[in-house]
Amino acid sequence: MLTVDSLWRARHRLAQFGKKRTGSPRILVIGVCQAGSIAKTMRYLLPEARVDFVSAFTAARRFPRLADLMAHADGYDHVFSSIYLPRFKGGGTIDTLRTHPKVRLIPTIVFSAYHPDLVHVGVQDSVTLNGLISGPMGHSHSAITLFAYLSGFSQAQALRLFSEPVFERLGYFNLWDESVSYLRGLGVQAGYDLDTHLTRWARRGCFMHSINHTKLYVVADLARGLLTRAGVPFEECDLDAFLPDDLGGQGSWPVYPEIAQHYGVPGSALFFKAETRRSGPARTMSRAEFVAASYANYDRRERKLLISQRVQGWLSDPPTVDFLREAAGRDAAPARSESRAPALSAGSLAGHAS
Questions:
Q1: Which residue ranges does the record assign to the Polysaccharide biosynthesis enzyme WcbI domain (predicted)?
Q2: DSSP string for residues in 141-162
């Protein structure tokens, strides 16, 4: 959204062109949302440096071929890139980009344990997000709400499914170890050991706004870590005191009280919706408001577009359907106690790491 502040920032950046920077590193950051926040953090840590950001969502328009982007990277001292890149003419992937001697990979942070109900709906195209259905919380949807809608449950019946027995049955309390393992794998993919960071983050409570949007101190730690690994000295400062939490501004999925109690962290049943042109100013929504808004959104969609692999797994598993129908207050045969819902996996919850 165009604002007076954004116009002022653009004017300021234009004024910097042509100015000589002595002894200050030139840094290029490439990627999606997490990378954009890392670039902004680096600007605070390195006030004299030039830190530019190229969004993976628009990179192919600026650089039709990957070779063009790599040539652009030649003009920088250090290049940091997430693993997500657009489709370039003539092909090329992150494996091609990382052959550039100045490129270091940014570890993608995806962690599902605090938000096990969050899913993406639709058929996702790589990086572009084309094909994903947007709802009251953007591309984040509730698997339980979608199941209830597709099963013909009323909104009141859908709300009854937000309960500890249902969460237990669906495996929502059992994702910690797998989420940690998945995150470690993402670190290995980038050649970055995340274990020390993870210990620090977990001590502060829930460190995610959603499964793929981190809180501010996560971004700050990654920016510091990447600069340290690249040998770029920086002045330490209390980033928490003044750095805006951009990813939180895109909305924040609650840690359901039942999940929060399990992990010993603060919880909430309020969904924080980001400000958008279509949906209006930022605000919180209760569970009832969120379910109502989700139902209204799904009513406007073709049913064939409401696709979630996890929800489809529940719908195709009769014991799970029976259990959830009974939990919602509908007449159904008792669920068989020895049966459980199809197992969740941290990878399947990851979706797009934007």
A1: 27-233
A2: EEHHHHHHHHTT--HHHHHHTS
